[in-house]
């Protein structure tokens, strides 16, 4: 590893507010398979896939343990849905973007040209790999604290809303932050027989259509419309 790479990784540790004694491990976590395969180094540099596998398991353990203790009355199905929301690709990519993780990922030429540094799948995988590296370097206690602190906002919302924390609620909270208060869900169409209707709904924010959705009930259609509005407003929903 050259001096410039070491300094970059030290800077990243400061941004992440973590300590890493083994910067080579962190560099491996941020080495995409495309870079390793194209490298002319002998032997080929290690890539991130094994650390990604480990990080995925560590994330699952930390989040599952938190939810098991925080929500003693939830059944396995409900816990699974909440965990899926917290560790989905969009959520992990969002955290990666916040710290500018893409800048530090080593990519092959093809991935670089195609915008790999901003691709959600690559960012989410890199985030998992970094978690895996941090776990190996510093242990479970520190990585547990790091993950729970990083996901504090989502965890607080889960504690407040549980499974009732849905896209409509999320949209309401998002727009209220910006001082936008008028949200209207408007039924646009209903097709099909009475026993199998499909409802089409639009969500209007301050009179402007921001999302449309369909569903087998008005509530489902409204949820889908709210999700589309969130995506339009730049929220990384799962």
User: Number of helical segments?
Assistant: 12
Portion in strands: 5-15%
Compressed to H and E, one letter per element, the order equals HHHHHHHHHHHEEEH
CATH class of the largest domain: Mainly Alpha
How many domains in all? 2
Mean pLDDT: 90
The low-pLDDT segments are none
Radius of gyration: 21 Å
**Helix and strand composition category:** mainly alpha
- Give the fraction of residues assigned to helices: 55-70%
CATH-defined fold name of the largest domain: Ribonuclease iii, N-terminal Endonuclease Domain, Chain A
Shape: elongated
- What's the total number of strands? 3
CATH architecture of the largest domain: Orthogonal Bundle
Main sheet: strand order: 1-2-3
Cofactor: Mg(2+)
Protein name: Ribonuclease 3
GO cellular component, one term: cytoplasm
EC number: 3.1.26.3
